[in-house]
Every structure is written in C-alpha cells, then in structure tokens.
Amino acid sequence: MTENTSPPAAEMPDSPSASTLDPSVPKRCGLIAIVGRPNVGKSTLLNALVGQKVSITSDKAQTTRHRITGVRTIEEAQFVFVDTPGFQMKHNAALNRTLNRTVHSVLGDVDLVLYVLEAGRFGLDDAKVLSLLPEDKPVVMIANKLDAVQRRAELAPWLKSMAERRNFAEFVPLSAKKESDVTRLFKILKPYLPEQGWFYEEDALTDRSEKFLASEIIREKLFRLTGDELPYTSTVVIDKWEDEGELRRISASIVVERDAHKGMIIGSGGERLKRIGSEARQELEHLMQGRVFLELWVKVRSGWADTEERVRTYGYE
Ligand SMILES: Nc1nc2c(ncn2[C@@H]2O[C@H](COP(=O)(O)OP(=O)(O)OP(=O)(O)O)[C@@H](O)[C@H]2O)c(=O)[nH]1
Ligand SMILES: [Mg+2]
C-alpha cells in the first residue's frame, strides 16, 4: 500500500532567470488540461511535470477531487497544467456531479488537452471521457503506464485503433514514473503553447495554498492506509492553523459518513489514525521545511456527499 511519494524531478536544465532570456524569442504560455477516467495516472503525471508533488495520488479511483494547477517554466515557455478529477459515471451523488462539472469547466478554457489512458486499454469509461473532449481543441493522447505493458508488440495495433477514434494531435506512449519520458513530453508540448506573456511567476509551482496542500496530504495518507472498505466519500477539513515561528500547529478533522467508518480509520488501539497522522506530519514537515505539530480528529457527518450544499461547505467548487 505504501508508494514512493516523491516524483522524479524532470531532467530539464534550470530555467534561466527572465533577464537572461533572449529578448528576441517571444514568451509562450498555455493552459493544458489533464483528463481521463479515474486511476490512469493523471496526478502522477502532473507531479512529474511540475517536478514536485502538488496533487495527491493513490491506487484508489477518484483520489483527485479538485481542479489543481501545476506550473513549470522552462526557458521562454510556461506550461500551466490543470489536473482534474477522473470523470465518474458510476454514482450520481452530489459529489460526483460537482467533480464532473469541474472537468467540464476546465475543458472550456484550455489551449491543449492531455487525454490520459492506460497503454493497451480502452474501456467504456475511457470512451465516455473521449466523447466529452471539445472538437476544436488539439488533444494529445498519452498512453501511460508503459512500464506495466508486458507485450509491447500488441501496442502498435492498439495505437492504430486509437487513431481511428479521433484526430489526435500526437500519440505519446510513456510512463509518468520515468524521468526521460517526462522530458520528452515537454518537447512535444511546447509548440502548442500560444505566444503570450506568462500567467504566473517564473518559480511558481501551484496556485493552491499551503493549507489546501496540507488537507490533501492528510487525505492521501487516509486513502493509502485504509483498504477498499473505506468509502471514497471521506474528506479532510483543516480546523486550526497557527504559525509559531518555525513551528506550525495544525488541527484537522477527517469527516466520514458512518460510525463504522470512524472505527476503521481509528483502528485497534488508535494505531491506524496514529500512522495516518505520523506519515502526514513527516510529509508536511518536508513540504514546509519546518516542524509541524499535527492533531487529527475523526467526525461523523452522515450524507455529506449527497447534498450539493454540504459538498460546497467542504470546499468543493
Ligand atoms: N506502473 C505504473 N503505475 C503508475 C504510473 N503512473 C501512475 N501509476 C499508478 O497509478 C495509480 C493511480 O495514479 P493517480 O496519479 O492517483 O491516478 P489519477 O488518474 O490521478 O486518479 P484519480 O485522481 O482517481 O482520477 C497510482 O497507484 C500510481 O502510482 C506509471 O507510469 N506506471
Ligand atoms: Mg488524480
């Protein structure tokens, strides 16, 4: 269940400061959406592209719940990637409607779409996502998890069949976990960025706050350390955040729908909750480069994912 959490930093030259850029080369900047069904590796790819973890990942479907922006500036080009929740059709609760709306609203604004699949697989859920992609935008097909493909020879006919489904701008089989693949992807994407000024500072990584990242990191540990028995509707809310010099005092609640779920998270003798807290604290200390005191609570709020109002209260746009 534990996974390597640090993404490979893409092997790109350090971006020169703006003042050293050749002024005769125009700046480029573009919005690139990352879409696909749940669990294909969208967030893993985003983190690899940014060179730092900005979006949480797990082997459970529907890990990502928000639109998350990750930024990478290389020489004159600023890539603004938008990670999205895996498009979901199975359930129809308010949470899912909200997640799907997020995907739709992202697609309206972007210059380019990365449509992520698992290499060699194209199911109904992948087809549904494909049918949502706008006709008038270039779409790059990413066949991810190439490292997991046993029979490479079968990939060529699969790619050919994919080419018949839509006029894709590019086909890129890769592994989001392989540094050289990620470097190659930047070169492929750069020509699609429009010539225009940058939207973010040169060293920006994300538009999300530390507080948001903290709640997400706790949710990641929760997802990774509980089995499939924990419904995906559990969420995390930061109740208190105090900076005392180098020390951060954070108090957070894990919100679940049933008493039984509360027991699963706490575990026997409180062991599981302790482990979630301690793994989250270590990662937060690494992210914030300072000591963190983390207090975790578990609360039951039945039906929170079923009403749109509650979903909004918990920070889903
Ligand atoms: N073998 C292999 N596994 C990968 C690769 N990329 C991602 N994964 C794994 O696939 C699982 C899902 O990754 P995520 O990045 O969370 O997937 P996602 O598409 O963002 O999922 P949702 O947010 O739920 O829509 C995790 O267990 C990753 O470690 C890859 O290139 N190779
Ligand atoms: Mg994700």
UniProtKB/TrEMBL annotation:
Region span, G3: 83-86
Span list, region G2: 62-66
Keyword Membrane included in the entry's annotation: yes
One Pfam family linked to the record: MMR_HSR1
Positions of region (G1): 36-43
Entry superkingdom: Bacteria
Annotated TM spans: none
UniProt-annotated location(s): Cytoplasm; Cell membrane
Bilayer topology term: Peripheral membrane protein
Region entry G5, spans: 174-176
RNA-binding found in the keyword field: yes
Location of the region described as Disordered in the Swiss-Prot/TrEMBL record: 1-23
Binding residues annotated for GTP, in chain numbering: 36-43, 83-87, 144-147
Start and end residues of each stretch annotated as G4: 144-147
Location of the KH type-2 domain: 218-302
UniProt keywords, alphabetically: Cell membrane, Cytoplasm, GTP-binding, Membrane, Nucleotide-binding, Ribosome biogenesis, RNA-binding, rRNA-binding
Main location as per UniProt: cytoplasm
Role, per record: An essential GTPase that binds both GDP and GTP, with rapid nucleotide exchange. Plays a role in 16S rRNA processing and 30S ribosomal subunit biogenesis and possibly also in cell cycle regulation and energy metabolism.
PANTHER family on file: GTPASE ERA (PTHR42698), GTPASE ERA, MITOCHONDRIAL (PTHR42698:SF1)
Subunit structure: Monomer.
HAMAP family registered for this protein in UniProt: GTPase_Era
Family (UniProt): Belongs to the TRAFAC class TrmE-Era-EngA-EngB-Septin-like GTPase superfamily. Era GTPase family.
Protein name (database record): GTPase Era
Gene name, Swiss-Prot/TrEMBL: era
